[in-house]
Amino acid sequence: MKILHTADWHLGKRLDRFSRLEEQILVMDEIVQIADEQNVDLILIAGDLFDNFNPSVEAIELFYKTLKRLSLNGKRPVIAISGNHDSPSLIDAPNPLARECGIILIGHPKTKVTPFELENFEISNSVEGMIELKLKNHDYPIRIVHTSFANEVRLKEYFGENKEDALNQVLAENWKDIADEFCDENGVNILMTHLYMNKKGAPILEEPEGEKPIKIGNADLIYSDIIPKQIQYTALGHLHAFQNIGTKEKPVIYSSSPLCYSFSEAGQTKYVSIIEANPNKQVTYEKIALKNGKALVRKTFDDVEKAIAWLTENQNTLVELTLESETYLKAEERKLIYNAHHGIVHLIPKVKNQEINQNQLHEINLNQDIQSLFKDYFKSKHNAQEPNEELLDLFNEILNP
Are 139 and 190 in contact (CB under 8 A)? Predict the structure, then answer.
């Protein structure tokens, strides 16, 4: 059985003022092509389907069109759960209609999916937090233990009211109960969840810049050692870099986002995971790189002309540009930079080789002339940058209208 695992689509996401929808259309098409070329039997989407609770009409349309293509119009099952960016109710709402197309949408933890049967597959069993599917071209079932995102308070509402129990214990007991009852060696057993999961004793994995944090301190941090022994592969969502926090024998995989969504992800290659699974055998997986989407680049220059030359040669990028200079950037320099490239997300001016006496910034001589006072004030507000001549001329014009 071949399974495609993807997550963190964040449809409708923007990077500052830049829409990413055109890139998302291309990368969704690429994921569909990979699913078809690999002839996968099942699609798993592990949360953060949209970027916010109220996605745009365009983002919703792209989502449903992509799911319909992935499902081959009902011939191939697609299972999608909500993440911390998604509205559970929005994800759940179209589920009765989606099922007719072979699409199973799960918004809330511990959801019980209504069984149904289509030409190529059926839900043969369903309980709270688990579905079992039988595909017509396989003589064994696949069980998906699923837990959509919820914060600690909501998870305890779903899984137990005993506030003394740690969240890990609550989840561990629930997953174990399901696995012990339904996940025997005669089928494929998968866990899919959108939670902040880490390996116990390993360094804390950083959440991407701009991501709505799940982890505050160590709250809501789930450890991979609570995954039941019957589970052969764990499909995670939330972190945007591809990584296996489990073992080779029992992979616990963040499949990555399909695009770089923040400059902390600059330079990352994005992937989908293709899993091959059989009952009571070690699964194998292959990560397939996604090629669409603009590169996010952080660049630093100490010369405006060099910056403009690089920008001119690298148009298909989104750029965070730091420009080191002796004085504050002039208006004409800013204009030249922005005219050279239409994908500059942030332009960060930075003074170089300028040592400041902190006492001078705090002990300002109020008896000096107004121009000198303005210079001191400007330096205190702009990391010791001197105002350029253009600003000084404007200041003088205000003083002497």
Answer: no
What is the pLDDT at residue 358?
A: 45
**Is pLDDT above 60 for 240?**
yes
Q: Could you give the angle at the alpha carbon of 45 between the alpha carbons of 140 and 62, nearest 5°?
A: 130
Q: Taking the CA of residue 10 as centre, how many other CA atoms within 13 Å lie in the half-sphere pointing to its CB? A: 22
Kind and range of the H or E element at 34?
helix 21-37
CA distance 199 to 353: 43
How far is the CA of 362 from the CAs of 144, 288, 329, 369, 373, in angstroms? 63, 56, 24, 17, 12
The upper half-sphere exposure of residue 46, i.e. CA atoms within 13 Å in the direction of its Cβ, equals 34
Query: Which residues have C-beta within 8 Å of that of residue 234, sequence separation ≥ 6?
Result: 190, 191, 192, 193, 197, 224, 227, 246, 250, 251, 252, 253
pLDDT digits (tens, 9 = 90+) for 332-352: 888 999 999 999 999 988 876
Tokens describing residue 34: 């990979």
CA distance 351 to 190: 53
Per-residue pLDDT tens over the stretch 125-167 = 999 999 999 999 999 999 999 999 876 666 666 666 554 457 7
Q: Are 351 and 315 in contact (CB under 8 A)?
A: no
Cβ contact 208:262 at 8 Å: yes
**How many Cα atoms within 13 Å fall on the side-chain side of residue 77?**
29
Q: Which residues are CB-contacts of 95 (< 8 A; sequence separation ≥ 6)?
A: 104, 105, 106, 107, 113
The model's pTM is 0.83
